[in-house]
Write a structure and sequence with these properties.
By secondary structure, the protein is of the alpha/beta class. It has one domain. It has nine helices and seven strands. A four-stranded mixed β-sheet has the order 1-5-3-6, with helices on both faces. Strands 2-7-4 form a three-stranded mixed β-sheet. Helix 6 packs across helix 9.
C-alpha cells in the first residue's frame, strides 16, 4: 500500500487478535503533529483465563497507568495497534538501507523477535516522538496456560534484549538499558530476599514484625492496589492478597534470567505461534 500513499497519509497496523476501541483512529489522528511519528495503542487483556488471565489483565492495567502518568509517551509501539505516518515508515526504510539503523532493508525488521519494540527504537532514532494516548485503547488476547505465557514472554524479553544489543548505547536506548538493569536488579534482590527469609525462618523461626519494614511493605501494597483499581474489585482483592502477584513476579523473573542466559549463550529463540 505504501507506494500509493502520500507522505502525510496514515497507515494503521493491527494484530489479528486485537479489537480497537471505537475512538482509536480519531484519537490517534488528533495526536499526530510534526514531532509525533507514530501513535500506538494502550493494550488491555480480554476476559477469561481464570487467575492467570486476571494477573495478565492487572499487569496490562499497570502498564496503562504508568503511561498515563508519563503523559502518554509510548515505550513500545505495540503490534496490537499502531498508526504510522507514511513518511516516517519511508524514512525508516531509507535509514535501514543506508546503514544508519540495522534490521534489514525494509520497513519492519524481519530479524527481530519483537518487531514492534525494534521499530519503536527506529522511529525514535530518527528523532520522532512516539505516543500512546488513553483514547487509543485496544483489547487483545491473553495467554490461558503457563506454557503459552512462558513462550510469549520469553519472546518479548529476549527480543527486547537483542534489540538493545543490536542498537547499542545511544541517546534513545539509554533509558531502555536502565530499565532492563533495574528489572534484573529487582529480580535478583527479590530472589536474595526470599532466600534470606527462608534461611532465617528455618534457623531461628518467625522473627516478628519490624515497624519500619512493615511500613515500607504497606507502601508497596497501596501502590499495587491503586494501580489496578480500574481493573475491578477482583483485581484489587488479588492485589491485597499479595501472594498470587509474588508468584507471578517470580515467573516473570525466571523469564528474564532465562532470556539473559540465552542471549549470553547465543542460543536460538524462535517465534512461537500461540
Amino acid at each position: 500500500m505504501l507506494p500509493h500513499l502520500a507522505d502525510r497519509d496514515l497507515l494503521l497496523v493491527q494484530d489479528a487478535d486485537t479489537v480497537l476501541n471505537p475512538w482509536f483512529a480519531e484519537t490517534a489522528v488528533r495526536t499526530f503533529n510534526r514531532r509525533v511519528g507514530a501513535v500506538g495503542g494502550v493494550f488491555y487483556g480480554e476476559q477469561g483465563g481464570g487467575l492467570l488471565g486476571l494477573l495478565q489483565r492487572m499487569e496490562f492495567h499497570r502498564y496503562a497507568w504508568e503511561m498515563e502518568r508519563t503523559g502518554g509517551k509510548a515505550q513500545v509501539l505495540t503490534g496490537t495497534g499502531t498508526m504510522f505516518r507514511a513518511r516516517v515508515l519511508r524514512e525508516v526504510r531509507a535509514a535501514r538501507r543506508s546503514g544508519r539503523i540495522g534490521g534489514g532493508t525494509d520497513y519492519y525488521s524481519l530479524a527481530s523477535l519483537t518487531e514492534d519494540d525494534e521499530i519503536t527504537k527506529a522511529v525514535k532514532t530518527l528523532g520522532y516522538r512516539t505516543m500512546s494516548p488513553a483514547g487509543c485503547a485496544v483489547t487483545t488476547e491473553i495467554m490461558t496456560t503457563l506454557p503459552k505465557l512462558w513462550h510469549q514472554r520469553l519472546r518479548w524479553q529476549r527480543g527486547a534484549l537483542e534489540n538493545l544489543r543490536d542498537y547499542g548505547w545511544t541517546r534513545v536506548t539509554a533509558r531502555y538499558f536502565v530499565q532492563q538493569f533495574m528489572m534484573g536488579f529487582g529480580a535478583l534482590s527479590f530472589a536474595i530476599y526470599l532466600a534470606y527469609m527462608t534461611l532465617v525462618l528455618c534457623t531461628y523461626g518467625w522473627p516478628g514484625l519490624s515497624p519500619f519494614w512493615t511500613a515500607i511493605g504497606l507502601i508497596f501494597v497501596v501502590e499495587k492496589v491503586v494501580s489496578v483499581r480500574r481493573a475491578g474489585p477482583l483485581a484489587v482483592f488479588v492485589a491485597l492478597l499479595m501472594i498470587p502477584e509474588m508468584l507471578y513476579d517470580l515467573f516473570q523473573h525466571a523469564v528474564y534470567f532465562t532470556s539473559l542466559w540465552g542471549l549470553v549463550r547465543r542460543s536460538e529463540e524462535k517465534w512461537v505461534a500461540t
